Amino acid sequence: MRYVIVSLLLFGLATMVSAQAIDTDHQTADDSTGIRNTILPIVFFLPETGLAFGVTGITTFRFAGESADSRPSQFIYSAAYTLKNQFLFYIPYELYKREGRERYMGEIGFYKYFYNFYGIGDKSTADQLENYDVLFPRVDFSYARSDIDNVYAGIGFKYDHFDITRIDSAGILETTRPIGSDGGQKLNLLLSLTYDNRDNIISSSQGIFAELIYQRSLNFLLSDFDYHKYSLDIRGYIPIRKNLVLATQLYAATASSGAPFFDLPYFGTPTIARGYSDRRYINPHIWSLQTELRYPIAGRFSGASFVSSSLVPPGFLDLGQLSSRWSYGLGIRYEFDRKEKTRFRIDFAYGDTFNFYLTANEAF
Question: Which ranges of the chain would DSSP assign to H, the alpha helix?
């Protein structure tokens, strides 16, 4: 469990500073392309990392010629260093042009870090936990275009060069030797079909988002693996009354045989099944349903109460007689840009254990 006192103190200080910066920006920006920046220092402690510190930030803007009510483009950037010589740097982005009819989306990152591994499947247990060290660059990119209102068709790729630098010699990675236990290079072709009529892509209060993504590893071109993946992400937002929103998400994913263990579907993230430890369940097939009620608190602060139920089936449609993995929690959001609804998010959640999340924007 993260020790969060320092993070919370820095969060309070940063929100006061960012509020002043954003207010000044609104006074001086007189066109739709005004760039808005907010930076937040972060500090955390994990037994595996020791003390860690870094910075995270958000840049929101519109390209020249885009109208003020068009979809905003956004970069989220984070960098962190731990006293055990681990390093994370990543920039996910979502860019919109032609009044939102063209979307560029992806991530550029470099990781020298560790991940959890509990084994694969529904029968994995907490006492099997081991941490393994990794070193890899990441480049993800996709381009989607809408020629029919709210419908996008896209193409792209996902690339990781996954170097596993340390494993436990007596752990289950060594004893079970799943595909990818020696690391390897992944290059997946991506095809997507998306329907999106949300009122705001950063913090939605009404509308529907539905996306089907197909990935195929290009083993004839740079990839060390041969497999395919599907993922389905459906989200709905219902305004109950002013500033009170009921949000629901269904997420499902499946991977074929041949997929490396580090690219199998999993849950236990800041967005899927919050409350479960990172990568608590890894499996060729997962389902997760979560819903949350979002409500105002005071001023720029709002809250969320959420619950999720997740399944780890033996086959993608073999959903009978499975035990649900439940999690639940509460969160606080600080809206530092009221125009774009850009927010920092703190969530406290319980699944297999208590977990804390400090990140940008809503979980879904």
Answer: 5-28, 172-176
CA–CA separation, 265 and 71 (whole Å):
30
Amino acid at residue number 114: F
Q: What span, in angstroms and rounded, lies between the C-alpha atoms of 331 and 347? A: 4
Give DSSP secondary structure letters for 105-133. EEEEEEEEEEEEE--BSTT--GGG-EEEE
| CATH number assigned to the domain covering 5-360 | 2.40.160.50
Domain extents for the chain?
5-360
pTM for this prediction: 0.86
Q: What is the mean pLDDT of residues 19-43?
A: 59
Which residues are CB-neighbours of 306 under 8 A, at least 6 positions away?
274, 290, 291, 292, 293, 328, 329, 330, 331, 347, 349, 363
Average pLDDT value for residue range 70-88: 92
Exposure on the CB side of residue 24, measured as CA atoms within 13 A: 8
**Alpha carbon of residue 357 to chain centroid:** 11
Q: Of 324, 328, 231, which is closest to residue 274 (Cα–Cα)?
A: 328
SS3 for 74-108 is EEEEEEEEECCCCEEEEEEEEEEECCCCEEEEEEE
Tell me how crowded residue 177 is: count the other CB atoms within 10 A of its CB.
11
User: What band does 41 get if pLDDT is binned at 50, 70 and 90?
Assistant: confident
* DSSP-based three-state secondary structure for 265: coil
